[in-house]
Specification:
- 34% of the residues lie in helices and 22% in strands.
- It is built from 14 helices and 14 strands.
- The strands form three sheets. An eight-stranded parallel beta sheet has the order 5-6-7-8-9-10-11-12. Strands 1-2-3 form a three-stranded antiparallel beta sheet.
- Strand 6, helix 7 and strand 7 form a beta-alpha-beta unit.
- The longest helix is centred in the first third of the chain and has 18 residues.
- It starts with a strand and ends in a 9-residue tail after the last strand.
- The model has no long low-confidence stretch (mean pLDDT 97).
Length: 319
């Protein structure tokens, strides 16, 4: 699938004009249908073509009736497994009449508030972009190492009351983090997401950032938690990174046991890609599932939003 965006979406690694994803549909002999959508983790070299090839190579085992638990050994973490895992959750819900939420131990899912992401743009344009979305409780600002404080200050002029998540996508050095961080408190930044490159985290040893730090590109699966422990406060769990909701719930449990707070994020896609992440969102302090709001057009049965608030997926969509 290719989902054109309302406007080009720029982060420190580059600019997108569309989100590319893979749609998986499973049917059983009784005619039940399960769907899932996954996006490539591009900074790890994934592509939708490669994801499709992974699934095709495993077609025989999948069609024999692979379980979600069996899937963890069949495919590596990544977008292909995330799409197939989501389709299995959806198919199970159709087969059993029990929602994915209930099967995950969430009998009464709550409405949620998502952050809205503002991509990198000219410094002065952050103000206008933030003003348009000032009704969101939280805005997520993509920045680079150029003049991030000026960009954040401009956004603050446009949205006086919103909390800010700032995401440099690994573009700052440790020295830049130390230099920028003190001003972030006064600018109302509630979370700083992966400011430094994955692999540079030892530079955080002995440093206490005045703003809570969130690990994103550093942590994909449970085995990565040790690299963040004692250095970051929050883990951003994305189903495309973990390889699906099944693995994401395991990662969330392990992260919470180590004292991390949780954020749920996304690589892109339609409401179908967001839907399984709303199960995990029920236990997250920060929610960043705004990809459908960035699209020129979403699925007609997509998530329903009012400002930043949105309801759990409808039966027609997923789960």
């Amino acid at each position: 699938m290719s989902w054109p965006l309302r406007e080009p979406f720029a982060i420190s690694r580059g600019t997108k004009t569309a989100f590319e994803s893979l749609l998986v549909t499973l049917t059983d002999a009784e005619g039940h249908r399960g769907r899932g959508e996954g996006c490539a983790v591009g900074y790890l070299g994934e592509t939708t073509t490669g994801m499709a090839a992974q699934l095709e190579a495993a077609r025989g085992r999948i069609e024999e009736g692979v379980t979600r638990e069996g899937l963890l050994d069949l495919l590596p973490a990544g977008g292909a497994r995330a799409a197939l895992d989501a389709a299995l959750w959806d198919l199970e819900a159709k087969q059993t009449g029990q929602s994915a939420f209930a099967r995950a131990g969430v009998p009464a899912p709550r409405a949620m508030d998502t952050a809205y992401t503002i991509g990198i743009r000219a410094t002065g344009d952050y103000e206008a972009a933030a003003r348009v979305k000032a009704d969101f409780k939280v805005l997520k600002l993509k920045v680079d190492a150029g003049d991030p404080l000026a960009a954040i200050a401009a956004a603050r002029r446009g949205a006086a009351n919103a909390g800010f998540i700032v995401d440099p996508n690994q573009s700052w050095t440790i020295d830049q983090l130390r230099a920028f961080a003190p001003a972030l408190v006064d600018l109302g930044v509630v979370l700083l997401e992966q400011p430094i490159p994955a692999g540079a985290e030892q530079g955080l040893d002995g440093y206490r950032c005045p703003v809570r730090l969130c690990a994103d590109e550093l942590v994909h699966v449970t085995a990565d938690l040790g690299k963040a422990h004692g250095r970051f406060d929050v883990i951003n769990i994305k189903l495309d990174k973990t390889g699906g909701l099944t693995a994401a719930l395991r990662l969330a449990e392990a992260a919470r046991a180590l004292g991390f707070d949780l954020m749920v994020g996304c690589m892109g896609g339609s409401s179908l890609a967001m839907a399984p992440a709303t199960v995990l969102a029920q236990q997250c302090a920060f929610i960043d599932l705004d990809a459908p709001l960035l699209l020129a057009e979403d699925l007609p049965e997509g998530l329903t939003h009012a400002g930043g608030a949105f309801e759990p997926p409808r039966r027609e969509l997923w789960g």
